[in-house]
Amino acid sequence: MSASEFSRRTLLKTTAWGVAGATLNLGAAGRALAAGDLTMGIVYVGARDDFGWNQAHAVAAEALKLVPGVKVVEEENVPETDACAKTMESMINLDGAGLILATSFGYYTPFVVDIAKKYPDVQFRHAAPLWNKDKDPKNAGSYFGYLNQAHYVNGVAAGACTTSNKIGFVAAKPIASVLSNINSVLLGARKTNPKAIVQVIFTGDWSLPVREAEAANALVDSGCDVITCHVDSPKVVIETAEKRGVKTCGHNASQAPLAPKGFITGAEYKWATIYKGYAADIAASNPLPNFLIGGYESDFVQNTPFGAGANEAAKAAATAAIADMKAKAPIYVGPLKDNKTGKIVIDKTYGNLDPYLDKMDYLLEGVVGSIT
Amino acid sequence: MSSGVPAANELPAGTLGATTPPSAPAASYGFWTRLRVNSEYIVIPAFALLMAALLFALFLLAIGKSPVDFVDYVWRGGFGTAFSFQNTLQRSSPLILTALAVAIPARIGLIMIGGEGALVLGGFAAAAIAVPMVGVVPPIVTMPVMVAAAVIVGGCWVGIAGYLKYARGVNETISSLLLTYIGIAIMNFFVEGALRDATNPNKPSTKPIGEAYMVGHIPGTQVHWGFLVGVLLSVALYVLMTRTTFGFAARVTGGNYRAALAQGLPVGRLIVACAMIAGGCAGLAGYFEVAAIQGRANASLAAGYGFTGILVSFLARHNPVVIVPVAILFGGLVASGGLIQRRMGLPDATVLVLQGLIFIVLLVSETLYGRFAIFRPADVKDRT
Questions:
Q1: Which of A73, A86, A205 sits opposite B342 (nearest CB)?
Q2: What is the percent of chain B with per-residue pLDDT over 90, rounded to a whole number?
Q3: Which of A65, A365, B201, B289 has the fewest CB atoms in 10 Å of its CB?
Q4: Which region, left, alpha or beta, applies to residue A233 given φ > 0 means left and ψ of -120 to 50 means alpha?
Q5: Is B286 in contact with A62 (CB distance < 8 Å)?
Q6: CATH superfamily of the domain spanning A33-140
Q7: Residue B78 in domain
Q8: B227 and A CB contact within 8 Å
């Protein structure tokens, strides 16, 4: 019997039951969580092997699967519509998930918030610093890695590798976290190369492979000899730059295999630190932290091991920069001006996790490119 | 694809208002004869679905997975529990409306695939008009205004493609598709610019419309009102297209454009009207995405419902009432897709493979109609 035949026939028999069940609100009947065992549901917006954002999470999920007593269920290509709400509910109702990790920015409002209110016994954590302790449910929360610290290290290494003093940056949308990564690359590069500039092209969306390739080519054509990026999947940018014979710095996950000749290092999330922490907290019956952010100092971000593109000076400077980041040395040392009006936008020195920096809506002097 | 227009010799001259149903033989035939004739429209698609399922089972066996497990998970994830079935209905809601956006123009012989653009712009219009009214005008007034904005903007958007077709002979399939991309770009332009909510720095969206201005669920369920509206609209449009002068004139135009012109039918107005009805349906889907789900307009409106609607409409042979069960079948496949990923370790694309197989096999099965004597009793005249 075919799937659809089966559905159709049995559908008729059970429609009445389905509606009756609904009115009795049997929604959560499938949830039976044995004590000590934890099922974690992870929701991805794209493919798990995208060489980018989703892969970074999926690599961490693999590490979680080795933790005793933890079962991981994963679903990929879940759009930021009510599909993600339904996926989370399905994980709770059909798989008995006790902790949901929603990994895409747009999942939070309204979906994570609404579903967390509906299932107060289930914990929800979302990968962006959005949880508001006054407004949002207590069983929800946020975790996030400050990847700009690893981009700063990228910049330090890139500054030591560039001979044209021009670093190219392919960016998706001009939002705060992207701008912070661009500015951090600039400030890092200036450490090893005071003459370095960063040239940026915005593609306008998170995943536009054709435009990303065009942007990478345009940056190489204009003289950039190191290319880095902030797009969902850096695969196209890195491969294009490698083909053009220039060096590259990665983003989100390891792209080292894509650029055997020109890869210097890359900014990577280390979600496994956070995910294993959650698993340990649950095993020990500790409450999960609601708000967890950090960078190198918390081991939430890392840099990809150096590739063939990194010279000795770059390796030494980048290794020192990593030590600086772990010691919480500030990246944004004021005063700093923006690149449009020359106005001072960073008046003093800010700590790397200072919320002031989350509102960044400018490119610093030394970046060539425009937000608008 | 046949639009089911009765042959001219069945129509007494000058009775355009006489409404002979398209696919059912005249009422003079007995019940059993009619059942036998009409069962062709059930048996052939059912056979096609069975074939598609068999092909898909081979595909699963080839990659070393169990087809039995697959069926089990489709059942459990899409239909087998109260939660699953409501999940399915909720996911089918936008598909019903976007499929109607394809089916209505198809009846007048146009292949319009611009539902996605009308959905996005309709949803955006609803949010844009609501934002200044929130907190000032009560929901009872604002909500109908939002619906009207979504339907009118969606209708006008696809209406453009209809007008271009009639007035300038522009291919409506291409123009409606290209208008989709323009529509998405227009929404992005405003959402990332003038209408952006400044308090949300990372995901460009309009300001939220707020809980009080949103549409809730059908009481006792987890399914929003868009589902019921879609079902009612399907029935209403079925009546419009098969039981009214307008629908008859539209089908005549679809069957033979020149004959319709020669009859003096207002072909231009009919084409634009059908395109606008289509756009209105898709715009309404956009309204529900904003008012029942997202609570604001942003890039998530372009989630591909408009494109899935094309498949649904073709599988339903552009029949508005058949769209409802087909959309539910699709909703169920998508709803269970997640469980299949999670339990069987299969990639998301697996369900797309099944959808593709169903689509191809059903299109091929179109060639089977009229070939089996069992569906044509001797006492029924040749209807083709």
A1: A73
A2: 62
A3: A65
A4: beta
A5: no
A6: Response regulator (3.40.50.2300)
A7: no
A8: no
- Bridge-based pairing state of the strands A247-252 and A263-269: parallel
Token readout for A96 is 């008995």
In this structure, is residue B227 part of a structural domain? yes
Q: Is residue B35 part of a domain?
A: no
β-sheet with A38-43: strand ranges across: A70-75, A38-43, A99-102, A123-126, A142-145, A291-294
Nearest to A21 among B56, B82, B293 (CB): B82
- Please give the ipTM for the structure prediction: 0.78
User: Which residue reads 């190219």 in tokens?
Assistant: A168
Q: Domain ranges in chain A?
A: 33-140, 148-267+306-368
Rounded to whole angstroms, the Cα distance separating A271 from A277 reads 10
Tell me which fold the domain A148-267+306-368 belongs to.
Rossmann fold (3.40.50)
Count of the separate structural domains present in chain B? 1
User: What global pTM score does this model have?
Assistant: 0.81
Q: How many residues does chain B have?
A: 384
pLDDT at A13 exceeding the cut of 50: no
Give the mean model confidence (pLDDT) for residues A361-367. Answer: 95
Residue B54 within a domain: no
Mutate to test the interface with A, among B50, B91, B116, B202 (most CBs of A within 10 A): B202
User: d(Cα B375, Cα A178) in Å, to the nearest integer?
Assistant: 64
The torsion of the CA quartet A59, A62, A67, A70, rounded to 10 degrees, works out to 110
HSE, CB side, 13 Å, CA atoms: give it for residue B196: 16
Which structural domain, as residue segments, surrounds residue B263? Answer: 96-315
Query: pLDDT value at position B11?
Result: 39
Specify whether the CB–CB gap between B331 and B92 falls below 8 A. yes
- Same CATH topology for A33-140 and A148-267+306-368? yes
pLDDT digits (tens, 9 = 90+) for B8-67: 444 343 334 334 444 544 456 788 888 888 888 888 888 888 899 899 999 999 988 999
